Amino acid sequence: TRGMTDLVSQSYPSNSPITARPDWRPSQGKPGSSLDDMRKQALDVFKVSHGICNPLYGVQMVFSEDMADAFCRALNDWLAKEWLDRDERLRGSIVIPVQSVEKSVAEIERCAQDRRFVQVLMLVMGDMPLGKRAYWPIYAAAERHGLVVGIHAGSNYHNPPTSVGWGSYHIEDYVAQAQAFQTQLTSLIVEGVFARHQHLKMVMLESGFTWLPPFLWRLHKFWRGIRMETPWVDRAPLEIVRSNIRFSLQPIDAPPDPPMLNRLFDHMQSDELLLFSTDYPHWQFDEDKALPEGLSSDLVRKIMIDNPLATYGRLRQGATKETTP
Fold first, then answer.
1. Angle at 122 between CA 196 and CA 119, to 5 degrees
2. What is the pTM for the complete model shown?
3. How many angstroms separate the Cα of 288 from the Cα of each of 47, 145, 316?
4. How far is CA 53 from its chain centroid?
5. With left for phi above 0 and alpha for psi between -120 and 50, is residue 84 left, alpha or beta?
6. What is the pLDDT of residue 112?
7. Which residues are CB-neighbours of 137 under 8 A, at least 6 positions away?
8. For residue 153, which phi and psi values (nearest 5 degrees)?
9. Residue 131 in contact with residue 122, Cβ under 8 Å?
10. What pLDDT does 324 receive?
11. Residue 91, helix vs strand vs coil
């Protein structure tokens, strides 16, 4: 028999400059695939006490529920053995076979026994909006175990990345990711996910965040006008975002202008929304400049320490390893 050695995803083409910084590309293998390199290039450089791993292996593209489930189980076991066991600073994300909600819940239940897993990982572009009730058992399982749901940039490519069809170039796909996050955020809010799961936290990973103020203004405006069709949304969208949604710092889709960036933070009306991230090994910044210039010391502490600890309860509680079946 011939084994399947790889699942190729077009979200990060191997030779694209944005896929990895030149100084982060390994001599062998794919960017981000070496624990030793990651220790030197990310954990040590940024003085990380806890780093959350988000494996982007394209299991979401598989149509077979059983094959996707087998890949996810193997991937999560590999992450625990080859990464979490070898560096106590690391924490994991549970990759789930979203092709089957039943199997996704079972995988969450299996991996949640290992408290080093702090998050359930999904992609922003899939078969349908993430607010649909078909996905609610996944959110219930995550909430029950104190797990965050991370929504990461990327697609299963069952549907076009843009709302008007397939583009010709990678840049079209890359730019369209922010639109997908806006669509999913709208779906999660108006479908009532956070009315049912009020303690659930979701983190938008690699979503950018400069689009958030105008998007929330528009969503709030129309919610006020036609909210009679969604009576279960009994809190303003901005309030829901403040309490339940967080955003990774990188990539920062803003000009390198400290006064302008600080005005943006003012428009966001909260200093609790952003979580420190490096987007390792992707090329979003040079050297160790993950934090933009001009931030106050209080905001830096919020982004780097207070907000992540408030979001990921399992980081506060510590981690214990238990055998998973």
1. 75
2. 0.92
3. 11, 34, 26
4. 10
5. alpha
6. 97
7. 101, 102, 104, 105
8. -55, 140
9. no
10. 41
11. strand
